C-alpha cells in the first residue's frame, strides 16, 4: 500500500494521512493509491502538514508497517526513548 | 567570560523579533515553506525525524551558570525534559513546536544566548579548547580570539551564503583538544621567537564523506592581522568554492583541487589587497574582549592534597580530573556517558532538565560560575579547588553524573543517528549503549585505558568516526542497518584518519568486533602504549585477522 506521512506544521508531530484528516497513529494511515501527489499538494497548501511524502507500507490485522526502518522509527519514536513514544510498551525489535 | 554590550544584545533581540514575525507569517500562510525553511534554519530550527529540532549556540563551549540553568528550564518548558549536547559544543532540543520557537529564542536572549548561525551555509559556532584558561600547557587563553572571530563572523554579509557550511576552531596548546585540524579553518595561537602572539592557520580540514586533515598554510599570522587573514581565506573560498556540487562544496575540496601552494598564493594575494582596506578591528577591541577572560584571582596557599580513601572517589579523581595551571585547583570533567550500578548505559550527550540545572548550580558553587561543553559531549567545571572535589563528587553521585570514564572506551561520542536524525542511515545510540555495557565493568575499561570510540549514523560524520581510535560508521545496506569499523583515527596533535577494517557488521556483530580489536591491543601492548599507539606500531593486519579470521 501507499501511505502519506509528514509533520504537523505547528507542532512538528509526525502525522499520517487517514483519507480525511491527519493522525499521529500510523495504524490509521489509509492507502492513497495513486493519489499521493494530490493529497500532499492539497494538505501542504492548507498548512495542515509540512514536508509530506509518500511511502510504501504493508497492513496486517490492522497494523500498518512502513517499508523502511526510517519510517518505522518515525511511526513509533526514538528506539532509545520508548518512554516518549506512542507505545511505551513497544520494544526496539518492533521497528527493526 | 564575555558579556554582551548593547550592540550584541540589540542584534540578538532584533533577530528574535524578526523570527517571531516570520513564524507568524508562516503559520498564517503568507510565507511558504520554501521561503520559510532557510529563515528557520538561520535560527537553528530544523525539521527532524520526529519534530522540529532547535540547535542553540554555545560560543566556544563556554557557559555561565545562569545560561546553563536557562538551558535546563527550556528543556522543561518547551521540550520533553532533556537536551542533547553536541560535538559542536552546542545543545539541541528534539521536540520543539514551531509556534514556541520565537518564545524560546526570546528566553535565550535574556541570558545572552541565541541559535543564530547554528545551521546554513555560513560560519558556524566557533569551537575551542574546553580547558581554555585553565590548562597548564596553553600559550594564551584562546577564547578572546574565538570571541573576536565570533563577532566578525556574526551576520557578516559577505559570508552568509557560502558554498557550504564553515567551521572554525581556535586552540592555544600543543595538545589539541578541539579536533582543530578537522575544521575548515583551525587556528592555533602560538608565541614566536620574539615572544609575540600569533596564529598558525590550518585550512581545509573536515570530516564528512571526504575526510581531510587541514594543512598548515601560514605558520604565523600576527594577532593584529587575524581577521584580515581569515577574511582572505574565506574570500578565496567564497569566490571559487564548488557551488555546483553540494558534495564538493566544502573548502577542503577547493584546497585539495587547487593545491596547497596555489590556494596559499591566492590567499596571500587577497590578504595584500585587504590590508589596503584596513578592515582589521582595532587592537583595543581585542584588549576589551581579553578583559572578560582575565584570570580570576586564584586563591593562594591551597593544598594539593586530596583524601583518596574512598575508592570510588579516588577512581573518579583519577579518571575525570585534569591538572589545572593554578596550584590547589583541578579541572573536572562531568561525563554525560553514564553507566548505572547495574551496568546500563545512558545516551551519550543527553542530560535531563534537572541534571542541567544541577550542573549549573555546581558551576556556580564550585567553578567560578562557569561551565564548558566539550566536543566529546561532556561538561567541564574548569576551576575547582581540590579541597572541594569530594563534596562536588558527592553531589554528582546524587545526580547520576559521576561516571568515571573520561576518554575511556565507554566515553563514546555518538551522533543522534537514525533515532532522531532525518539524514541518518543507521542508529548510533543503541550501538554506543551496547558497547558501553559490554565494557561497563571499571576494571575492564581501566585495563584498556585511553580509547576514544566515536560513532556516526551516516557519512556526514557528526559523530567524528574518522577521528576515533575506533570509529564506527552506520550505513544502510538494502534497508538494513550495517556498521563499518575503522581503526587508527585521532583528533589530537598527531591527527590521523581511521581506516576501514573490511566488511561491516550488524548491531551485535559490531560490538563483538570492537571487543576483538581491544583483545588484540591487550595482547600486543608494550609498556604504557595506548590502543592507538599499539595500532600504529603493529598495523591493521593482526586486527583484521582477529576480527574476520
TrEMBL record, chain A:
This is DUF2849 domain-containing protein. It comes from Novosphingobium ovatum. It comes from the Bacteria. It holds the Pfam family DUF2849. InterPro entries: DUF2849.
TrEMBL record, chain B:
Transmembrane segments: none annotated. Keywords: 4Fe-4S, Heme, Iron, Iron-sulfur, Metal-binding, Oxidoreductase. InterPro entries: NIR_SIR_4Fe-4S, NiRdtase/SiRdtase_haem-b_fer, Nit/Sulf_reduc_fer-like_dom_sf, NO2/SO3_Rdtase_4Fe4S_dom, NO2/SO3_Rdtase_4Fe4S_sf. The keyword 4Fe-4S applies. Pfam families: NIR_SIR, NIR_SIR_ferr. Residues 119-273, 408-547 form the Nitrite/sulphite reductase 4Fe-4S domain. Residues 52-109, 347-398 form the Nitrite/Sulfite reductase ferredoxin-like domain. Gene3D superfamilies: 3.90.480.20, Sulfite Reductase Hemoprotein, domain 1, Sulfite Reductase Hemoprotein,Domain 2. Signal peptide: none annotated. SUPFAM superfamilies: Nitrite and sulphite reductase 4Fe-4S domain-like, Nitrite/Sulfite reductase N-terminal domain-like. This is Nitrite/sulfite reductase. The lineage of its organism: Bacteria, Pseudomonadati, Pseudomonadota, Alphaproteobacteria, Sphingomonadales.
